[in-house]
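Now for a concrete sample entry.
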Amino acid sequence: MNETDDPEEGIPPSKPSDEKNELTESSQAFGTEVSQGHRKRRSTFFKYSTHQSGTFDSFKVEKGGQWTEKEADERIREFLVRLAGDRELGHESNPVELARKNDLLLLFGPEEEKLFAKLAVRFPSETLRVWTDLLGGGDSSESFGPRSRAERQDEKAIALSIKKAFRRRTITCLVVIGLVVFAIFFFKRLANEGIVDDTNQALRFASQESEVASEGEKENFGAPIVELELVSTIDLLVALQEGEGPAEDRVRQIVPETLLEVQPGEIIATVFGYNGGGQVALMGPEGWLTEACIRASVTDGRFRPFDVVVFELTEGMCSEEITGRKVSPTCLGEQTLIIPLYIPQGEVAHSEGGSGWAEMIRIGYEMDSPGWETLAIRGTIAVDAREGQTEIPLFSGEVGDELVIDFNDSNSGNCILM
């Protein structure tokens, strides 16, 4: 038999390795899934062993504005180098090509994805788009092998988290910028216009005294005429028992009548202008002045005082806890009393900062009784906003003159100027 007749002649020897390569190329060309064994081998090759950790311990992600493309590429490259660890890398200046050439995307685990998402918050839009597509798998030609359905879902979730983080950061920046712009315009306007004394509730004197140049005599405003809108009844009971615990638990709205030297509503008060300053006039029941301790203050709308005065006809009636500037009476009678009180006009600066206007006069008949931390009857003289420009009336007189004050139709008192 001829050698050429050998049945095995002409049959090429089998090449298992070539066939395997062809099958792999065919599998990749048609987009079929790689085998689980192949995927496992690749994962084992690229992953750190369990005892290696701390690659990103010193890697910090600073908060701030958006990076330029160059700055973003530098931070991404630093991230990828740390991600590779001790593995040998093929050099590429472009971080996208560096990741592709060295298969670094296979090293992205859940923790690496979270850290990279923090970086992506500061990426410029084009860099963000490229890496979102890259982490999402890109086109099939750019993928590191066909992806399973679970992998595609995970990659979509990563891309969505990056977009949400970027959107939140953008909204936060816009809100902060808006607040800053509003504050700048507000304080600029405030600085230009200042605080204007335009309140209708400020306490103002009807007019100012002026001297007659020829004889040096003061203008005569006549006897005191009460402005009914500036009359107030002292009828608020303030009773705080001594003891321990919160003050609100020791407040009493009702006390024995025998405990009070003066009952609520028995004292009425008003305000005048005299001799260039403010005056508080009070009238009470018979004998009320003998044991009286009276405190009056003028405050702004936030209860910050401009002046506080204390009056006692009998020495020692006011306890040491009751603070204020002690004053002598301007006019004194059996049931009627007038004491001086500084009432500023216009805007006035407070010593503790800020400014305000005289808007109310607070008056208290203070009592010192055993077992009580505070026991008083108080009231307030103020101008209601709806009343408009109610003015403080002025009066004139000389020392020794007797004044008659008609607080209302049923209450009239007299006193001697001192």
